[in-house]
Amino acid sequence: MVLVLLVFLGFVFGISFEEALSLFEGSEAMKAIEEKKRALEGRVISARALRNPEFRFESGFFSTTEGGPEGRLLYIGEITQEIPLWGVREKREKVARSEVRALVWELEGLRNGLLSDFYRAFYGALLAKEVLQIARRELKTAEGIRDFVRKAYEMGQRTELELMRAVRLYEGARLEVSRALGRYRSALRELSYYVGREVKEVEGNLYEVPEFRLPRPEETPPVLALSERVRYYTNSASLHKALALPLPRTGLMAEDAGGYYGFRWTLSFELPLFYRNRGEILESLRMREATELELSSQKRRVSSLLSSISEREKVLRESIRRLEEVLLVRAKKELSAGMKSYRLGLISLLELSDIKRAYFSLLRERALLYAELHELYAELIKLGGMKR
Fold first, then answer.
1. 349-384 vs 328-343: helix axis angle to the nearest 10?
2. Distance CA 288, CA 91 (A)
3. CA–CA separation, 51 vs 84, rounded Å?
4. H-helix segments, the chain
5. 212 by DSSP, 3-state: which?
6. Of the candidates 36, 182, 112, which has an alpha carbon nearest to the alpha carbon of residue 386?
7. Which residues contact 115 (CB under 8 A, 6 or more apart)?
8. If we measure between CA atoms, which residue out of 49, 46, 58, 55 comes closest to residue 81?
9. Distance CA 224, CA 238 (A)
């Protein structure tokens, strides 16, 4: 009930990242992955189970002329059971477990990919909202300039041309707000797909980025899945070698021949005279070698991607630091001084427009740099999952 209330409030006042994530984790796509994981448990159960016994029934008639013609009905019933020697049962279970672990890691990689797409969608919407807010701030500034020029024009202190330019700057800012609003609504529609409900507003701080905790390459799902695939082919080769050995079957036979009863114990073998699973063994060994090469390549790829993420994070954070501590502070002071100078008639509207444009461009650049950091974090989620 509390969760439902929080979700309702989220749609009224704006949905937060945690609320959106909770809805996304309960989505059909994520549930399907978890169901597939649970379905794989059946493979281990099947491999662990003993093979079912076989039952054979025969009926016939035989006769003899010795001592006069005489006939008898014959009934034979036999039940046989495979004896899992050579560790066949344990080897089957090992094959199943290694295959299941490989598939689970592959599904985990798919899950991380979906989480990465969701993260991009949420912070893409948050970026669009921030850009919209910047555009509205710029519009308010342009409106203040227009109103000042209009009053000054009415008092004969500004020319008509200057008023026309101020109005044009204001209309340009209005157009930018309209475009930013369209982009924000489009981003909200994309986010709605992931949470399964219509999202009308998002809440959060674009300028807060989670800590980048890089996993080791061998701990990522793509590498772990291939590592389990190597074990799978190794276990598969071992299983086929065991299956190439004579596999015994034991049984109990009961006979009824017209009043004569008998019981016999049977033992049979499948003799590997013509075929000893060489094709299956060769395939498993060659696939293991191929997967080992793929695993080595995947480790290098993941290591390279993690190194790239780390380097790009450092560059982005340094760019953000310089922009926030130097460029943005200076541009804000310039805008404040420019507004005062223009009111005093010390600079032209064109110069003030350049100062204003530079300041708000830096605000947008700051938002875009933080969005790049979030995009980088989404790449990290795709590789190693979301750390919370």
1. 160
2. 17
3. 9
4. 2-13, 17-25, 28-39, 41-48, 88-154, 160-195, 221-243, 278-322, 328-343, 349-384
5. coil
6. 112
7. 24, 381, 382, 385, 386
8. 55
9. 21
Which of 62, 94, 96, 182 minimizes the C-alpha distance to 131?
A: 182
Q: What is the DSSP letter of 216?
A: P
Q: Which CATH class is domain 2-61+73-306?
A: mainly alpha
Tokens, residue 386? 């979301």
Structure tokens at 270: 């499948």
Residues recorded for the chain:
388
Query: What φ, ψ does residue 166 adopt, rounded to 5°?
Result: -65, -40
**Coil, strand or helix: which one is 76?**
strand
Distance CA 373, CA 330 (A): 24
Q: How far is CA 17 from CA 70, 123, 130, in A?
A: 91, 9, 15
String of DSSP letters for 329-369? HHHHHHHHHHHHHHHTTSS-HHHHHHHHHHHHHHHHHHHHH
Per-residue pLDDT of the chain (388 residues), as tens digits, is 434 444 444 445 589 999 999 999 998 899 999 999 988 888 888 877 777 788 888 777 766 655 545 667 777 888 887 877 777 888 888 999 999 999 999 999 999 999 999 999 999 999 999 999 999 999 999 999 999 989 988 888 888 898 899 999 999 999 999 999 999 999 999 999 999 899 999 999 999 999 999 999 999 999 999 999 999 999 999 888 888 878 788 888 888 766 677 788 877 777 777 777 888 888 899 999 999 999 999 999 999 999 999 999 999 999 999 999 999 999 999 999 999 998 888 888 889 999 999 999 999 999 999 999 999 999 999 998 887 6
Cβ neighbors of 195 (< 8 A, separation 6 or more) are: 15, 20, 23, 24, 27
Largest Cα–Cα distance of the chain, in whole Å? 147
Tell me how far apart the alpha carbons of residues 182 and 167 are, in angstroms, rounded to a whole number.
Answer: 23
Beta partners for 15? 202
- In 10 A of CB 256, how many CB atoms? 15
